[in-house]
Amino acid sequence: MRVKRFQLQFYGPFSDSSWIELSPTMNIFVGENNAGKSAILRSFLGTLPAVPHRNATEWRKQYLRVPKHNVEIEYSGAELDWTLRKMQETENRGWYSASPLYPTATEFKQFALNQLAAGHVEKALSRPPAADFGDIGSNPGEPLVNSFTFVFHQGDWMVSQHGATTPTSGLPEVLSRTWRDKVFVFEALRSSPGKMGYAAPGRLDANAGSLAIQLNGLQGDSPELFNKLVFHLTSIFPTVGNLSVSPAEGVFEIRVWATREQKTRELSFSLDDSGTGLAQAIAILYIAMTMDDAVLVIDEISSYLHPAAVKALLRILQSNYPHHQYIISTHSAEVLSAGRDAKVFWVRKHDFESTVAEVDLGDLRTLREVTGQLGISMTDVFAAEHIVWVEGETEEACFPMLLAASGDKTRSVLFIALLATGDFQDKRVKAEKIFQIYERLTGATAPVVSKVAFNFDSEDLTEDKKVDLNKRSGGRIHFLPRRNLESYLLQPAAIARVIVEAVKSEQALDVTQIEASVTGALQKAAIDRRYGTPADPPAFDNEEWLSRVDGASLLRDLFGTVTEQTLEYRKTTHSVALVKDLLDRQPDKLASLVAYVSELVNVAKSQG
């Protein structure tokens, strides 16, 4: 389901917000405190809050207009079918319709079946507080001359006709149920959900109070998905090593571990003692990972998460779970910079009235006005004064960790993956082509940024070619001293640890044995021409060989060989894990790569 657009009337600080057109992916509402952002997001709750609009002219309860939430939603026939079947199963209720629209049962059944078969349907709805949605402009209390009930019976959809009745349900009410099933509102303030009594897992409730039950079900029934959730958490929170759910004093309890290893319960902490930010992130990830086509509404995400954690969480949501619609409120620059493909809406309040306007990200004057009111600079919004364009998503994830390891605490540098990097390595390429691409990429991402650098894999380029490209780019283009990033990651102990961790949910492997296998495989690779000119002397720690070996291809083959083809090497997952492991356990092995990234950032800083 998607919310295509919505309108608030006589609600909270809005007398009439007008129709607000949403993106099907990411939407960010910005504004000062008390501007009306939270009121907007709370209007997406299962029940519209009873908060009528007041102003200096009319504030007396008896004269206030009834709040109204109008929406236009997009949904599929499969979603409608699922909701109807659940209503039939749990409530023995069908779908009713008035006869003026469909005079006969046959016509109504055809309409209903067409809805269920449709891949994409749109419907405009409206609701007051404490009520389900209805058709916009309809009068729910108006008697119906005839009505039809559409129900699932004995393996088929059936229609029965009623006489003069006033049925209370219809398609809008079915969609109200879909709304409550698919829209999740994460409010800024919530109690910690670390413990809950025994129960079967179901839908995560509104305040995530049942999170322990849901995670226990995930841990037991879908361990691979649970481990992926843990992996996401460790990417977001450096202080989190693992997560578990276990019985404790008659309840299920979520435990947080500082290390991957889980030796004894006493070395872990209850989620209730870990702060609301971690709990909120777990709940958001749980919904994103277990639901199909949901709407996630997140209020003031930066109020309970560190700026770096906000960026990491949004990157995970956008990259791994783009099938959801996200509606987020913030006054933080980090959220704006992380949502590069988002629609941005500016919420402003004057006296008793709030307004909403979409921000044109191409209009620098408007951007300055918005960021000025939020108390941040335009370079804050676009995340960086300096941009380093890198080879791909793996470098985009790894280079910030490497920069941090260098001791450089600069927060104004952004690493962004390039597309079609072959354009820069084609021997026929001209300097004009390089700068055309450079100008297009830099202008599209951040109009106010002029300080950039490029990083590329060396691949098979000659030293003369690399020097020539660097010179023609004015010193902006630099190349890894080794063939590619993976050429720095050929360390047996780290590879063994990453492999064991990746397959632990399916099989228990001994790290020492795997390390020995990896060492043997690397030694064979050092004399294998498939990965580059053999090492002389034939050793996998030969520096000249490491500078030219195709580490990416080697790791791909090595993972398959060592695990007997049970684990496929994935660059964006396993390369990142190897970098993190080496920085934590063997930082000296990446010292030259850390120095290179630090130098690259200095190049970006020095460009004018």
Fold topology:
Layout: E1 2-11, E2 14-16, E3 20-21, E4 26-30, H1 37-42, E5 68-75, H2 77-91, E6 95-98, H3 105-117, E7 121-127, E8 134-135, E9 147-153, E10 156-162, H4 171-182, E11 183-186, E12 195-197, H5 211-221, H6 223-236, E13 242-248, E14 251-257, E15 268-270, H7 276-290, E16 295-298, H8 307-320, E17 325-330, H9 333-338, E18 343-350, E19 353-358, H10 364-374, H11 378-381, E20 386-390, H12 393-405, E21 413-417, H13 422-425, H14 431-445, E22 451-456, H15 463-472, E23 477-479, H16 492-503, H17 511-525, H18 543-548, H19 551-562, H20 571-585, H21 591-606
Parallel strand pairs: 4-17, 4-18, 11-16, 16-17, 20-21, 20-22, 22-23
Antiparallel strand pairs: 1-2, 1-3, 1-5, 5-7, 6-9, 7-8, 9-10, 12-14, 13-14, 14-15, 18-19
Domain YhaN AAA: 1-63
Domain ATPase AAA-type core: 269-337
Pfam family, one: AAA_27
Distance between the termini: 47 Å
Structural class: alpha/beta
Number of helices: 21
DSSP strand count: 23
Beta-strand content: 15-25%
The oligomeric state of the chains shown is single chain
* Low-confidence runs: 376-383, 420-425, 427-435, 444-450
Explain what this protein looks like in three dimensions.
- By secondary structure, the protein is of the alpha/beta class.
- Among the domains are: 193-274, no CATH class; 381-484 and 599-606, no CATH class; 485-582, no CATH class.
- It is built from 21 helices and 23 strands.
- Helix 2 crosses helix 3 (105-117), helix 12 (393-405) packs across helix 21 and helix 16 packs across helix 20 (571-585).
- The chain is globular and about 90 Å long.
- It starts with a strand and ends with a helix.
